C-alpha cells in the first residue's frame, strides 16, 4: 500500500477507435499503469446499453476474471491475460463505445473509452455478360491472317 504522502496514480491509455471487419475477432486494449499502489486492482469493462444505462460486461479482480451475466454480452466476451476485452466475432450491433475502468486502492481509479467500428466486407464485384461480345468460335472472327 501507499505510505502517507506518496503519489498514487492510475493511468489508462486506450485507442480512441478500434476497427474490425464484420464476423472477425477483435481485442480492445485497456493499457494501464498503477504508480504507488500495487496492492489491489479491479479492471472493469462497461457498455452503455440501449436505455442509456452503463452496464458492466466483464471484470478482473485479484487475478480472477469473470463475465457478468444478464447482459447482451454474456457468453460473447472474455478478457485476455492483458485484461483486454475480447470479442470472438464482431457483429454490427457491437458498433458502440466500450469503457474500461481501473480501480486500485489508494491510487483511486481511471477510465478510458474506445469506440468500436464494425465494417462489412466489400461486396464481390458483379460480373455481367455483355451480349455484344463476338464469339471466338466463329471462324470468320477468329481467323488472323499473317502478313506475308
UniProtKB/TrEMBL annotation:
GO CC terms in record: external side of plasma membrane
Keyword Disulfide bond: yes
Keyword Cell division: no
Record-annotated Ig-like domain positions: 4-117
Taxonomy, superkingdom: Eukaryota
Pfam hit, one: V-set
SUPFAM superfamilies: Immunoglobulin (SSF48726)
Name of this chain's protein: Basal cell adhesion molecule (Lutheran blood group)
Gene name tied to this protein: bcam
Amino acid at each position: 500500500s501507499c505510505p502517507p504522502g506518496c503519489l498514487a496514480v492510475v493511468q489508462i491509455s486506450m485507442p480512441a477507435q478500434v476497427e474490425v471487419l464484420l464476423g472477425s475477432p477483435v481485442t480492445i486494449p485497456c493499457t494501464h499503469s498503477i504508480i504507488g499502489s500495487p496492492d489491489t486492482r479491479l479492471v472493469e469493462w462497461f457498455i452503455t446499453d440501449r436505455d442509456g444505462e452503463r452496464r458492466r460486461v466483464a471484470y478482473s479482480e485479484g487475478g480472477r476474471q469473470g463475465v457478468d451475466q444478464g447482459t447482451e454480452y454474456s457468453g460473447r466476451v472474455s478478457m485476455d491475460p492483458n485484461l483486454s476485452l475480447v470479442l470472438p466475432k464482431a457483429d454490427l450491433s457491437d458498433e458502440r463505445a466500450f469503457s474500461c475502468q481501473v480501480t486500485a486502492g489508494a491510487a483511486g481509479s481511471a477510465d478510458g473509452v474506445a469506440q468500436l467500428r464494425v465494417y462489412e466486407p466489400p461486396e464481390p464485384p458483379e460480373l455481367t455478360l455483355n451480349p455484344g461480345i463476338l464469339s471466338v468460335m466463329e471462324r470468320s472472327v477468329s481467323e488472323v491472317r499473317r502478313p506475308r
